[in-house]
Amino acid sequence: MKKIAVLISGSGSNLQAIIDNTSNGFIQGKVSVVISNKKDAYGLERAKNHHIPNYFISFKEAGTAEKYDAQILQLLEKYEIDCVVLAGYLRILTPKFIAQYENRIINIHPSLLPSFGGHGFYGEKVHEAVLEYGAKVSGATVHFVDNGTDTGPIILQDTVYVANEDTPKTLQQRILRIEHQLLPLAVKMYCENKIKITKIESKRTKVEIV
Fold first, then answer.
1. Which of 15, 124, 191, 202 stands 20 to 30 A from 166 (CA)?
2. Alpha-carbon distance 156 to 100, whole Å?
3. The domain spanning residue 151 has which CATH number?
4. Residue 11: which of 47, 56, 41, 49 has the closest Cα?
5. Would you please indicate which residues are annotated as catalytic (active-site) residues?
6. What is the distance between the alpha carbons of residues 8 and 122, in angstroms, rounded to a whole number?
7. ω before 95 within 30° of 0 (cis)?
8. Cα(160)–Cα(138) distance, rounded to whole angstroms?
C-alpha cells in the first residue's frame, strides 16, 4: 500500500476527496501526512478529524524556498512517502524537491491544460480568464509536476461546458465537482501502478494508462 502526502493551502476539499476514497477502499493507499503553508488552512482540520499527522510550515521562519522545501522533504522521508499530491497547494516547488520525487508528484489544475495554465493562473483567476476569453468548454487536469508551471505530463482531464450565465464562482464550483472525481481516480491508478510515463521527444514525456 502506497503512502501518500498531501500538500494544501486552503479548505482541502480535494484532500477530503482523497481521504474518503482511501477510507472506502477505492484508492489502495494511505494518506500518511498532510502539510500546509497556511496556518489557518481548513484542510489541517480535515486531517485532524481523520487522525492524520499534519503540519504547518512557516515560509517566513524558513527564510528561503530551498530551506522551506528541505523541511517538507524531511517530513516526506520521515513518513516514507511514495507519492506527493498537490491539492490546492499555492507554492512553486524547488528543482531539488521535484528531482527527488520525479514522476511522483501529482497536481490538480482547474482548466484544460495547456490552456489557462502557468504563472498567475490559480483559483478563481483561472475561471475569470476562461470567461473573459469566451471559452465554451473548460474543465480540470491532473498532471505530474515538472520544473515548469503546469507543464508536466497530463494524466487525466475532464470537461464542463461554460454557460452564458456563468460567473467565476459558479464555474469554479462545477469544476470542483469533477476535480473531486478526477484526482482520486488518478491517485488510484498511481497506487495500482497503472500509469506509464514514456519519452516522446528529448524534452517531452507522455502518460499512458496501462
1. 15
2. 23
3. 3.40.50.170
4. 41
5. 109
6. 13
7. no
8. 5
Distance CA 61, CA 82 (A): 27
- Residue pair 172/161 in contact (Cβ under 8 Å)? The answer is no
| C-alpha–C-alpha distance, residues 208 and 210, integer Å | 6
Domain around 179: 2-209
In angstroms, the CA 203 to CA 101 distance is 18
pTM over 0.85: yes
d(CA 126, CA 109): 9
CA distance 1 to 14: 20
Contacts of residue 71, Cβ cutoff 8 Å, sequence gap at least 6: 57, 62
The closest alpha carbon to 29, from 196, 197, 208, 185, belongs to 185
Q: What is the pLDDT of residues 124-137, one digit of tens each?
A: 999 999 999 999 99
Counting the structural domains of the chain, the total is 1
pLDDT tens figures, 50-83:
999 999 999 999 999 999 999 999 999 999 999 9
Residue 5: which H helix or E strand, with range? strand 2-8
Question: Is 77:142 a contact under the CB 8 Å cutoff?
Answer: no
Backbone angles phi, psi at 204, to 5 degrees: -125, 150
